[in-house]
Amino acid sequence: MAVIAVFNQKGGVGKTTTTLNLSAALAHLEKRPIAIDLDPQAHLTLSCGILAENRDETVAAFYREGTSLSSLVREAGGGMRLIPGHLELSKIDALYGKSTRIASRLRDGLQESLAWEDIPILIDCCPMLGVLSLNAIFAADRVLIPVSADYLSMQGVARLDAALNVLERGMKRGIERKVVVTRFDSRRKFSHRVYGQLKERYGDSLCETRIAENVSLAESPEHGKSVFDFAPHSQGAKDYFALTAELLEKGFIQ
């Protein structure tokens, strides 16, 4: 079981898009991944074409009632599996934020019910460093940070990197991370400049694959499909397959 948290504190950087299509690419490679929607907006769940209206069938039930994670897994098409999200997750901070053991809740749940599966697990985090995101980071072996090719997003990843460095000291272990540039427009000099600055700062931690701005990536969630099922010959599909191959080759996903 390899657990990857997909996280950035800034919204609109392609976090859910990356979780969806990375999971779908792994499914096409017969890796049988499980994606966990840990965002109260539940956009990953909607993007998979699933309407999870009953909280008892979502990851919210794991936090509220202690339901095992394995019983919440649903087929999401194309070999991909999903533990859906729900709006009820927005109450987790208020309910459990003062608990000293809450940060390890997800890690313990994964060990109890899914550790026997030799599969990748990808967690779509909410865009804030609260109880849910801390759960994901504590449970994860590694963190993948999507950053769109713009100035504010680049500043956001620097702050996140600093926050992860602080968490490493508290967790008493390193947090391996990769940064992937999304919404890259090869026609804009600024996109190339952002990529160059990130390369200078993060070196080998920056993915060589860049995810180009692509209309198919924006349209596929409306149809409840990954880009591979919606537009398999699009540039978006090519980019996410290349990213998956890179992460597998470099051992980031094991």
Task: Write the topology of this structure.
Elements (H helix, E strand, L loop, with lengths): L1 E5 L8 H14 L5 E5 L4 H5 L11 H7 L8 E2 L5 E3 L8 H5 L8 H9 L6 E6 L5 H9 L2 E7 L2 H21 L4 E7 L6 H14 L12 H5 L7 H4 L4 H15 L5
Parallel strand pairs: 1-5, 1-6, 2-4, 2-5, 6-7
Antiparallel strand pairs: 3-4
What can you tell me about this protein's structure?
This protein has 254 residues and is α/β, with parallel strands linked by helices. The protein has a single domain, classed as P-loop containing nucleotide triphosphate hydrolases (Rossmann fold). It is built from eleven helices and seven strands. A hairpin with a 5-residue loop joins strand 3 (74-75) and strand 4. The model has no long low-confidence stretch (mean pLDDT 92).
Q: What name goes with the CATH superfamily?
A: P-loop containing nucleotide triphosphate hydrolases
Number of domains: 1
Estimated radius of gyration: 17 Å
Q: For the largest sheet, list the strands in their spatial order.
A: 3-4-2-5-1-6-7
Note poorly predicted spans.
Answer: none
Oligomer: single chain
CATH class: Alpha Beta
* Overall shape: globular
Q: How many strands, what sense, and barrel or not for the largest sheet? A: 7 strands, mixed
- Give the total of beta strands: 7
Structural class: alpha/beta
Average pLDDT score: 92
- The percentage of residues in β strands lies in 5-15%
In CATH terms, what is the fold-level topology? Rossmann fold
Output the number of helix runs. 11
What portion of residues is helical? 40-55%
Q: Which CATH-level-2 architecture?
A: 3-Layer(aba) Sandwich
